[in-house]
Amino acid sequence: MSVVILKLGGSVITKKDREMQADFKTIKRISREIESALKQSPDLKLVLVHGGGSFGHRIANKYNIHLGLKSGNQIFGFTKTIQVMRKLNFILVEELQSLGLPAIPLQPSAISIQSGGKISEIYTKTLKFALNMSCIPVLWGDAVFDEKQGHSILSGDHIVAFLAQNLDVKRVVFGTDVDGIFDSDPNTNRDAVLIRSITTDNIEKTLQNITVSKTIDVTGGMHRKILEVLPLAQKGIQIEIINAKRDGYILQSLLGKQDLGTLICNRK
Fold this sequence. Notes:
Layout: E1 3-8, H1 10-13, H2 24-40, E2 45-50, H3 53-62, H4 73-98, E3 103-105, H5 108-111, E4 112-115, E5 118-122, H6 125-132, E6 136-140, E7 142-146, E8 150-154, H7 156-166, E9 169-176, E10 181-182, E11 194-195, E12 197-199, H8 203-209, H9 220-234, E13 238-243, H10 249-254, E14 262-265
């Protein structure tokens, strides 16, 4: 059973400048594209992972959930972060189900545990069973229990990396709000060039040549994302970073089109 993981960034499915505001229009469009892809490719086994955007991040930062349990009021913040992320997940899953898609939420805080901010375990047996039943498992970045520090943040990107290492995954698609990886920040440099392909043999040189930007979403996040998916590419898993805000890109990517953004692969 070969699986495709689709990661939808929080900046794609929420309004970044509005607290706890989902981007319903984009969620509806992406859901329709997923429906179309599954109709055209019935054998496609899909796992969805989504970020928190304007839902989870603000509350998690307010209570410093990522720093671990240091004061009593963080317990409330921990549970509140989990709850607001469930709300965002409900919106996405409800839209998928309205199209007749068998999407099923798998709450990371209930099936995962970390130690010092790093994954100790994600219980994948339920997820594998869901895939065998032709369901679409939907997971998300979440606040989780932590053996060393009480609680911590399990990011959607870390979930993707773990699942890709522990399932039979052939491709990972990151749906972001940018066209891919650029040699500089396209928000500040009109001449920024989109890097179409990165291979495991030139990835370090590519990272050195990418200009560090002041925009967290575009720079530090992208650098971190590249480094985190490198072991996946070395395993032969194809990684694609595309702009999920563009109509049709999710559909085309799920159907195998590869020139939509930046491709990271184990190819010289």
